[in-house]
Design a protein that fits this description.
2 copies of one chain form a homodimer.
Chain A lengths: L8 H11 L15 H14 L1 H12 L10 H25 L6 H8 L2 H33 L7 H18 L6 H26 L22 H11 L8 H4 L8 H30 L9 H10 L4 H34 L17 H17 L4 H4 L5 H22 L6 E3 L4 E3 L4 H25 L5 H29 L12 E7 L5 H13 L2 E8 L4 H12 L4 E6 L6 H14 L4 E11 L12 H10 L4 E9 L5
Parallel strand pairs in A: 3-4, 3-6, 4-5, 6-7
Antiparallel strand pairs in A: 1-2
Helix pairs in contact in A: 2-8, 2-11, 2-13, 3-9, 4-9, 4-11, 4-17, 5-6, 5-16, 6-7, 6-13, 6-14, 6-16, 6-18, 7-13, 7-14, 8-11, 8-13, 9-17, 11-12, 12-13, 13-14, 16-17, 21-22
């Protein structure tokens, strides 16, 4: 009988080397940031989507041939209009929820549990996709510049995820230079490129893209409304990340709602400019769909030439912002996970802040699922896109609906009256009519877009998400059920004083008569006078030998020998204990004292039958049987 | 706090479906067999090697071009001579060891522990290679006939291993039809083919092999003595399995040694005829080295034509005998493993007979390592051959040396005097001189061959075995050391009566105040009056809340709150217990009572921090701390 040895100081040292020394709970940061840094912190997800949104529009339209690419600009303008609607809607949320108004909180306050859990499922799914898509696209920028790295893209992507996971387990301060440098660097380089492109366009020197390894489709398609709507859906990934600011309002300097709102509008404006600009340049340079080269790369080398440093600078800046975008999911996913876990819909572990004050379990879960997606989809952005953004638009819809309901409820209140909700304070708002109209319109628009998504991208992978979100909600409710049951079970509300223990039987399984057994026996006798030793005899000739030895050493304790004709070890023992447990009365306690070898070295465990382990596992299945382990440290007395 | 639920009746049912119902210890078989069936049972390993031995000679010689193939017959004759020497040597062993005289037993009796363990390591290694080589060669016969299966050869090989493992876990009766049919079928078909081939040769109608996809070498070689010796080494795989009968003498009818000896000579004679015959036909049909077609297949289709049923019959019979050969390793490996484990040089589990009376652990270990070899070497026989047969020849050498020493020792005895050894009875033998000469010559010959192996095949993979065998012997001694220490540790030889327990301290970790805690507390107080409850406070504000609740429910028991500023759970608890354990006196016992949730469903474990599990692991590392688990079955009262 044996089990594993404990203590892992080496492991702990290695962990601290990777993620840094433990942080004190009192060290939790409380600093706030201004608008300029706020933009850097929260905008990377939204802005970075310009690096692939245009590509995805062109890849869909190109199925109907080069002529269909004329629709890329109208589609982009449609998406920018939608962005304006969503921005105005969210601006209202930010003012109504100064403590943070993510879709989950808004839905929980105004619509109830089920819509909140749906929003949660949608967002968690999408955060995972944000990591997978952003990293895949970032790697695509790298392999556009260095095509020889293309076969290694999955490994590169997984390496980046591993690195980001470590960085986030160390804990990232959501402020300062770390975010500002890459975001503003990307912003300046991209806006300069767009400006330079427009200058060339208006001076008639824009040039045309050449030498692209054009994408090969399995089937070509006729240009149809369906195809244009599908291009629109794919391009709508540009809107992902717009909600980020509404989650992080408390991070802003006072007046935080006002500052956050202004930052949101700035972000949307910049995003619109960049997205329109890049789509415009793609259209007029004649950029094409390609599996191996991104649109950014095609435009940049047409404008600057492949050898010009600006080519690598733009692609480098884009890669960097994409990695930063993935990083925002590393903040959002664990935060939302902890929120849902706190409400009892996800495993409680997600609320646990690790040694570096971050939500360790959430970070690791996110990294695990994102890596899985990268592997399954071969780090191909285009393959992941059909799954993406449905979740975000579902959460947009739920959130805007929640806001609309909120304005309606607020209209029923008297001025000055206040109702405390979980996530906010509900007050009468004199301008509720216009606000209700704006949020309702936002909800309707995002709902329609979501349906368009689900329909146009269904066969290409969207069905996975359409099935996954309800499945997740189901699982959340199962988890909730378990926690509620547990709480009811453990409640002391109707707890009476326990019955007095009248009899305490102790059973000591003995594999042989030796020091380990003697120690267990000694302990057992100190706890109760009612001790039985049990031996399982595999060899029928064994019984007499052990009886004789017991005569000498057993100190008068009763020895029961159980025959095991089928050479089983823990099973007959369990059966014997089960029998005795079944016979006892309510005031009787049954303890099994298991002598357990603890070898000095872990590999020694391989040299022993793990009977004690299996016995313990079996005993845990019996009701009201107490298990006492007497560890015997082999070789430590010498 | 939680742990896994127990009971696996479904798993047990599935296991019984696969390997059959449990067998009673009294059902162990005791029947014996005659010479004809004995040949079938023990010869498959030796005879089957003709299916690849010729191939391996030709593959090596062919490196020096077609002309070098002229040396194939002389090499084969050399190998047959060696076979005769080994056979005569082993015939003597059989008579000296009527209870079974494998190399391990002979070495243990006559040479001591270290040579015995070396022989054991060599043989275990080679049994694993027997499975890998035989199955790979069997699959090569299949893919020779059905080239479209070639890409699937690793999967086919693994499938066969899985099937054989299940069959052997069910338990094979080593007798009767199961062995006789394939062995005699192969014997008849092969001897007929050889006879037919010689008939065609002498009538001048033998024909020549055409259309072989000839093997491509990375480098060609000049014909040299070294190359011929290497061909000889590779061909010596034909001798593997000759020792099988000496392990299984007790299976024969009385007079068992005589019957076994005659069977051995028969087996070697048949093997010589088949090996010579096939090499002769290969030479005269001009068969070539090929990666995708075996020599058997080349000869058979030249003799019969590809469409003739005899072609498939020969290849089928060969595949079958190769699988039977692998099967003998499934008998030998677990038996030797159990023998070494019984002597304390391998994990004791190997002596354990499972529910079907077979050595379960040995079978599974063999299957695991053989599968690994198949995967690593891509089920390519030629790649495995350099590793093969070194172990067998090392064991030959050790065994014959042991026999020589034995005759020398026996010469010192008076006639009629007897010494009981572990594996046999040592007596004076009047013919000791000639027997000493024969075994010494056998030892010398096999030793020289082994050195030739190691040198000529070193760079091609033999180095793995040359390093592996000493490494294994080292591990065997480490294991032996552990068991000896353990026995000394547990011995009751100088055991005095234990000190009377003066104080019994009980510590109850409480995560919160609930029914699970109450039950643990109730039990703790029934065991001792000296109870302390300990709570780890992660949230600094938590302390007051739990103190208040404890006031109401704690029933006067002392509550110690341990602050955990780094949000660790089991670590501060362990530290606290370690402190208390360090302060106590010798007559003091310390028990930690751990309340442990047992969820109704296994997946619920995912919803809890595994604190109880980690705490228990940590506590097992502390000396003389008793761990008591109070299982709390969640949801079973409702």
């Amino acid at each position: 009988m044996a089990t594993t040895t404990a203590k892992q100081p080496l492991l702990e040292s290695f962990k601290q080397l990777l993620i840094g020394p433990r942080l004190h709970t009192a060290d939790a940061p409380h600093q706030t940031i201004g608008k300029a840094i706020g933009l850097a912190v929260f905008a990377s997800d939204a802005l970075s989507s310009t690096a692939y949104a245009t590509d995805e529009i062109i890849i869909v339209l190109f199925m109907a041939g080069t002529g269909a690419l004329a629709f890329s600009l109208p589609v982009a303008i449609g998406i920018i209009t939608l962005l304006a609607i969503v921005t105005i809607s969210y601006e209202q949320t930010i003012h109504a929820y100064p403590n943070g108004g993510g879709a989950y909180i808004v839905a929980r306050d105004n619509l109830g549990e089920a819509p909140a859990q749906t929003a949660g499922a949608a967002l968690l799914t999408d955060y995972i996709l944000t990591v997978a898509v952003s990293i895949s696209s970032g790697v695509a920028q790298i392999t556009s510049a260095f095509p020889e790295l293309y076969p290694w893209r999955v490994w590169i992507a997984l390496g980046i995820i591993l690195f980001m996971t470590l960085v986030n387990l160390r804990g990232v301060k959501e402020s300062g230079m770390t975010f500002s440098i890459p975001t503003y660097f990307f912003l300046i380089v991209t806006l300069f490129t767009i400006g330079f492109g427009f200058f060339r366009y208006f001076t008639g020197t824009l040039g045309a893209v050449t030498g692209v390894e054009v994408m090969k489709y399995e089937t070509t398609q006729a240009l149809s409304l369906f195809l244009i709507l599908r291009a629109f859906s794919s391009g709508c990934t540009a809107l992902t990340g717009v909600e980020a600011i509404s989650n992080g309002i408390t991070a802003f300097k006072e007046p935080s709602s006002r500052n956050a709102g202004i930052t949101l509008i700035w972000m949307s404006t910049i995003l619109s400019v960049m997205f329109f600009g890049m789509t415009f340049l793609a259209r007029h340079t004649g950029a094409s769909a390609s599996e191996t080269e991104t649109i950014f790369s095609q435009i940049a080398r047409t404008l600057y030439g492949l050898d010009h440093p600006m080519y690598l600078i733009l692609l480098g800046a884009t890669t960097l912002i994409l990695i930063m975008a993935a990083n925002t999911a590393y903040a959002d996913f664990p935060r939302l996970g902890a929120l849902q876990a706190g409400d009892g819909f996800l495993p409680k572990q997600l609320t646990y802040r690790g040694s570096r004050l971050v939500f360790t379990y959430g970070i690791v879960t996110l990294a695990g699922f994102a890596s899985l997606l990268i592997i399954v989809f071969g780090a191909r952005t285009t393959a992941l896109i059909p799954l993406y953004a449905i979740g975000v638009f579902l959460s947009f819809t739920i959130s805007q609906t929640g806001m609309a309901v909120r304005w309606w409820k607020s209209s029923k209140l008297k001025p000055g009256e206040e109702i405390q909700q979980l996530g906010s304070m509900l007050r009468y708002d004199p301008r509720w009519r216009i606000k209700l109209v704006i949020n309702s319109f936002g909800a309707a628009a995002t709902f329609v877009v979501m349906i368009v998504f689900a329909v146009t991208k269904f066969a290409h992978g969207a069905w996975i998400v359409v099935l996954l979100i309800p499945a997740l909600v189901f699982v959340f409710y199962r988890i909730h059920h378990h926690y509620k049951d547990l709480a009811a079970d453990l409640s002391l509300d109707s707890y009476g004083a326990p019955a007095r223990i009248r009899r305490h039987r102790v059973i000591v399984p003995v594999s042989g008569v030796h020091r380990g057994t003697m120690r267990a026996l000694h302990y057992a006798r100190s706890v109760s006078d009612d001790v039985t030793a049990v031996h399982v005899a595999i060899d029928p000739n064994d019984e007499q030998r052990i009886q004789n030895k017991w005569q000498k050493w057993g100190d008068g304790v009763r020895l029961q020998v159980v025959q095991s004709p089928y050479r089983l070890l823990h099973e007959p023992l369990l059966e014997y204990i089960r029998c005795i447990a079944a016979q006892r009365q309510t005031s009787e306690v049954l303890t099994v004292v298991v002598p357990e070898f603890v070898p000095a070295r872990a590999w020694h465990n391989l040299l022993h039958m793990q009977t004690a382990f299996l016995l313990r596992l079996g005993l845990l299945g019996l009701k009201d049987v107490v298990i006492t382990e007497i560890p015997y440290h082999v070789g430590e007395d010498r």
